[in-house]
Design goal:
- 34% of the residues lie in helices and 20% in strands.
- The protein is of the alpha/beta class.
- It has a single domain, classed as Metal-dependent hydrolases (TIM Barrel, Alpha-Beta Barrel), CATH 3.20.20.140.
- The strands form three sheets. Strands 1-2-5-6-7-8-9 form a seven-stranded parallel beta sheet, covered by helices on one side.
- Strand 5, helix 3 and strand 6 form a beta-alpha-beta unit.
- Helix 4 runs parallel beside helix 6.
- It is globular, with a radius of gyration of 17 Å.
- Bound molecules: zinc ion (2 copies).
- The site of one zinc ion has 5 residues, from loops.
């Protein structure tokens, strides 16, 4: 069973209105033993007039405070969802060294300046071209950025494609996806299994089941599971299904992190 949700947003994220206390209450009610708060840090990114940047010190202090208050009910880790871009490497490194974070999700949110959440990213290209461009940007990020623990929602671009997953399959992008997975494994990093896509109507988590299976085949062991909840009601969404998928793919353990070091818990 999965007792940890390692991808949760609070009002420190520009796109979430729920304060950390509400998030923690919900996680306790859902019977989780551990959560990691992972608010957005995307340097210089403004969307709908919201800047996706956090004051590291205030954020860290607040999460530590609620972690201490709730320590008899649930373990709360301080994480961040860091938007990776090659030219932001120095800013990322200095942000992460400013506080003692437990866990960092490295995510691709901006691809050549565009966020696939918005239709402009898909303008003038087929869905397949948009997917390939997304995977190529992950490879470029991996060449430069190594300051993360797991790569977030690897094929998240599919959520927002005009035809969603109609023109998507692991096989179509096998070469580049294998390349990405091998690189992540050789860096001793992991991937996250993100159940948010199931709320977007996709029949699979991000990444899709074939990618999870392939990651295992290639020797990948480090996985975290996250709901990507922006609303406390979505915490641990579809974790039973994710548990079954992971066991089918041959996994026996998932990870929690303390001060950027993984520990393994039984599924
Ligand atoms: Zn994300
Ligand atoms: Zn997120």
């Amino acid at each position: 069973m999965i007792y940890s949700d390692y991808h949760i947003h609070t009002s420190f994220s520009g796109d979430c209105v729920f304060i950390p206390e509400q998030v923690v209450d919900s996680a306790i009610k859902k019977g989780l033993k551990e959560i990691c708060i992972t608010d957005h840090q995307d340097f210089g990114f403004i969307a709908d007039d919201i800047l996706y940047e956090i004051d590291a010190h205030n954020y860290f202090k607040k999460i530590q405070e609620i972690s201490f208050k709730s320590k008899n009910q649930i373990i709360i880790k301080t994480g961040i969802e860091m938007g990776l871009e090659p030219d932001k490497k120095d800013k990322i490194d200095s942000f992460l060294s400013s506080e003692d974070f437990d866990f960092v999700i490295g995510s691709s949110h901006l691809i050549n300046g565009f966020d696939p959440y918005y239709p402009d990213y898909f303008k003038g290209k087929s869905d397949e071209e948009a997917f390939l461009e997304y995977f190529e940007s992950i490879l470029r990020n991996l060449d430069v950025c190594n300051n993360f623990d797991v790569y977030g929602h690897l094929d998240y671009v599919v959520r927002y494609a005009p035809n969603q997953h109609k023109f998507y399959s692991y096989n179509k992008f096998k070469d580049i996806i294998d390349n990405i997975l091998s690189k992540i494994i050789s860096m001793n990093k992991g991937i996250e299994i993100n159940s948010g896509s199931l709320r977007y109507g996709l029949p699979f988590p991000n990444p899709c089941v074939e990618i999870i299976k392939r990651y295992k085949e290639l020797g990948g062991e480090i996985i975290t599971i996250g709901s990507d909840a922006h609303n406390p009601k979505d915490i641990s969404h579809s974790f039973n299904l994710i548990n079954d998928i992971l066991i089918d793919c041959g996994f026996k353990y998932y990870c929690n992190f303390t001060k950027r070091t993984p520990s393994f818990s039984k599924l």
